[in-house]
Amino acid sequence: MNDLRAINEAINKRAGRRLGPSIAVSVSIIALVWFALAYHRELFAILVGIAVIFGIREISRAFDADNTHISVPPLVLATIILTLATWRGSLAGLAIATAFCLPNLLVFSLWKGPEGFVKRATATTLVLIYLPFLAGFIILLARPFDGFDRVMTFVVLIACNDTFGYLVGVVAGRHPLVPKVSPKKTWEGLAGSLVFTVTGGALSFHYLMHEHWWIGAIVGLIVVFTATSGDLIESALKRDLSLKDMGTLLPGHGGVMDRIDSALLSGPTVWLAFEIVKRYL
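The chain above was modelled as a monomer; its predicted structure follows.
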């Protein structure tokens, strides 16, 4: 028993997180997504909106530590507007809602006066685009009649990238990928993400979407880039703000932002891939 505990502690130390709770949270999230899609796809849109609101709360607290203060309630309202507009109006709804909310958020920021306005306006714009706008493309995946298959394919791609990149990095990681941004991310982990995400993409496109396997392989390859970039961007935010995690809501992961970072940047790519396949292939 002591040997097993020692091995577990060694793995946790090398990975930088607790492995058991991390796996349990990941499985729970996938089960929740599956239930929302299977029961009523509108629930999935609500689930995405709730995750974004928690993300806004976390990133707002992170900015507070750097004396950059943004107003959470207007951003939450903007998230609700973007979520509803995306579900009801598709891509046009997302674009129009974003164009409506951004200037109103900037006008609201004026109420605090000119001092620090550039920092507030820049941070507010970043949060609006980074969270509810990019998350809108994940909601768009669920809108069509085959929304269940689209989202589950997306989940497979993100899960393969994150899970196998993490596991291969823990077991065989020796060479840091971008040490100044994310010291624990390695080239070996990236190779694991590449192999398993391309494979997962090929299998999910063939068996879930009933499309050519090679299309899924190409999409998987692109997702490795977007998902890894999303993770690195969030790591850069945390490092710049001197934070280990954005929050503590999810055991083994940190905050919601630590869980959805790769999905946010991958959503538009996967949505675009499905649109290209539908229209031209």
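The chain has two domains: 40-143, 147-281.
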